[in-house]
Design goal:
42% of the residues lie in helices and 20% in strands. A two-stranded parallel sheet has the order 1-2. Strand 1, helix 2 and strand 2 form a beta-alpha-beta unit. The N and C termini lie far apart (38 Å). The mean pLDDT is 85.
């Protein structure tokens, strides 16, 4: 199984397929740092990734953190 997983990961590096990750958030400021860390660790070409954030009615600084990371 480990061997198959390595082969799959190697194929991602050569992939030119675009992927969109849609993530809903609400009052999630405490979880944003872990989300960002995991997103940056994805083994997929960064130029083929798009993140769409759906945020509504947060009273913490969720949106500010997401905007800061997007810039």
């Amino acid at each position: 199984r480990e061997h198959n997983r390595v082969q799959i990961r190697q194929s991602y590096r050569d992939c030119d397929m675009n992927v969109t990750i849609v993530s809903p958030f609400r009052d999630s400021a405490k979880q944003i740092p872990a989300y960002i860390l995991r997103a940056e660790q994805l083994d997929y070409p960064k130029e083929n990734l798009e993140f769409v954030f759906v945020e509504g009615d947060s009273v913490d600084h969720t949106w500010a953190l997401l905007n800061e990371w997007a810039e």
